[in-house]
Amino acid sequence: MYDRWSLDVLYKGFDDPKFQEEFNQIDTFIEKWAELAKSLGSKDARTTAKECLTLSEDYDKVLMRLASYCSLRQSADTNDSESVSYMGRIMQKHNETTPYATAVEKYLSSIPNLDEVIAGDEMLEDYSYHLHELQKSAKYLLSEDVETALAAMDMSGGSAWSDLQGYLTSSVKVDYKGETTTLSSIRNMAYDADPEVRKSAYEAEIAAYDKIRDSIAFALNSIKMQDLSGCKLRGHATPLDKVLFNSKMQRATLDALLEAMKEYMPSFHSYLRAKAEALGHKNGLPWYDLFAPMGKSDKKYTVEEAKAYLMNIFENENPRLAKIVDRAFEENWIDFFPREGKVGGAFCAGLESEKQFRVLTNFDGSMSDIVTLAHELGHGYHDFMIFDNRPLNTGYSMPVAETASTFNENIVVNYAIDHASSDEEKLALIEGQLSDVTQIICDIYSRFLFESKVVENRSNSFMFADELCNIMLEAQKEAYGDGLDHEVLHPYMWVCKSHYYSAGLGFYNFPYAFGGLFARGLYAKFREEGPAFLEKYNYMLKETPVRSVEDVAKICDIDLTKKEFWLMSLHSYDSVIEEYKRLVKR
After folding, report:
1. Any idea of the CA torsion for 399, 404, 407, 412, to the nearest 10 degrees?
2. 231 with 239: CB under 8 angstroms?
3. Long-range contacts of 348-352 (CB under 8 A, 24+ apart)
């Protein structure tokens, strides 16, 4: 029963009359956008604002359904040429709306006495935050002609380079012991119990990147140059400033987060050294043993068993979440298993118009995969909390995007540790928890350092693959310290991580650390306050699209600009690290 997701709720294929009808509707919407743009200012501000928002709602509903269908099909099979073709045609049509949508946005952002226009109208009051954010963004908006040109150029620029990275990493053939396999399959071997398998898989992975590294180096350079050029045109000081602005997040919050991470990082280095010693390494942990399992928890779960495991936990902790998880399994919202042509990793995509979501994962039955499922289903739960918002109030920013997912991880992992049947199983589970949090602290910090350096360099020079590898190695040395063997790192982490390959979404790294530690603090409050906390938690998730990051946190009485909150979250791992050291010595 459980294998691939069903997209029939959207369309049953590209020949589905519904798909063709809605695809053709884009042309009608283009005409409507043009008519609306011409009429701006001919009516009173309140009437015009409502017309603009209504058209935006109707158009976004159709566009997102079409784009989601193409994107999800392409993620499940990067060789699906129809998906690529239709996505290109959809985006080409969408770009025709750019001058009109830009004119509308400029009109909305320039309404005088905005609060007076909004007052007393239910729709406008719902969109008050949205309208005020448009006014803040106005200074970064270019003319209609320039916005149109940039959108059109992106199709053969940043978006095309991003597609290239996804295609190459999902289709490259990995030579392993006389056979070929996929990159996602070979990366899963990093968790194998056999040290020879881990090492040989690491070597095969590194060798595979040699085949595609030059092409992807060009992709990365081109995307970062496009991002820099766009910032210069719009008036953002740097790509990071742009990201923080779009994230509705203060620089003080990012600084507090990074300072806390740097201060606490030696504790994670001590965990890595303890693991290295247990595995017989004297100079820190070699990269190929970074995810080596410890203790004994080699049980493999079927999809049915994974579902039963999650349902048992969530039915007790959060019944509302349990019902959503049950639907996801039973209604085929999840694409489970790795295969050739399927993208690696895992993600969740919300389908707002259908009040559903879809999860892609590369499930091989380990406890780690159950945690991954819990993580992605957390994203889906977050989506459900905002599905009742108005259509234009469903997009939350990067930093809070990882909150519900990591909150779920805390619930599942801590349950598993508390119910461990032996020290061996407990060690294995704590290892998984510390391995994951080390990734969102040490590895994410290395990614932040890497991207910062790449953006800095790209202003004046092109970086070939060797230089990118060197930048990555230096970032890993700083972030992992003496926890890793500096002679055996991973120079190609910049090749396989899709997060670097978006001209419009830079620095997609620190949100993982933010989400992990924010969720850890929320989890502590949940344990302290009990089920009553969930009402506040759900409200906070619902509000994420219509408040700043700092104001969202205040709902749960948290000040994100203070390093103390982040250190509190980090120090919650003190006892976990000490217990790990005790268990690993035994």
Report:
1. -140
2. yes
3. 348/376, 348/377, 348/379, 348/380, 348/383, 348/405, 349/68, 349/71, 349/72, 350/379, 350/380, 350/383, 350/394, 351/9, 351/10, 351/65, 351/68, 352/61, 352/64, 352/383, 352/387, 352/391, 352/394
Q: Which residues is 484 bridged to in the sheet?
A: 285
Q: What is 526-554 written as a DSSP string?
A: HHHHGGGHHHHHHHHHHHGGGS-HHHHHH
H-assigned helices in 235-297: 239-246, 251-278
Q: Are the CB atoms for 537 and 526 separated by under 8 Å?
A: yes
Distance CA 251, CA 46 (A): 35
Collapsing DSSP states into helix, strand and coil, what is residue 341? coil
Say which amino acid occupies 245. F
Q: What residues have CB less than 8 Å from 565, skipping those under 6 apart? A: 256, 521, 558, 559
Sign of CA dihedral 431, 433, 434, 439: positive
pTM equals 0.84
Q: Tell me the chain's radius of gyration from C-alpha atoms.
A: 24
Both ends of the chain: CA-CA distance in Å? 43
Q: What confidence tens digit (pLDDT) does each residue in 373-386 have?
A: 999 999 999 999 99
Number of H helices, E strands in the chain: 27, 5
Side chain identity, residue 193: A
| Rounded (10°) CA dihedral 319, 320, 321, 326 | 80
Size (the chain), residues: 586
Burial class (CB in 10 A: 0-12, 13-18, 19+), 358: buried
> 3-state DSSP call for residue 265?
helix
Q: Which residue do the tokens 């590209």 mark?
A: 14
Pairing of strands 179-181, 356-360: unpaired
Task: Please check whether residue 71 is in contact with residue 349, taking contact to mean a CB–CB distance below 8 angstroms.
Answer: yes
Q: Report d(CA 510, CA 256) in Å as an integer.
A: 12
pLDDT in tens, 142-193: 888 888 888 888 988 999 999 999 999 999 999 999 999 999 889 989 989 8
pLDDT tens per residue across span 479-531: 999 999 999 999 999 999 999 998 888 999 999 999 999 999 999 999 999 99
- HSE-CB of 216 using CA atoms within 13 angstroms: 26
For the chain, the maximum distance between any two Cα atoms, rounded to a whole number of angstroms, is 79
Positive or negative torsion for Cα 132, 379, 400, 142: negative
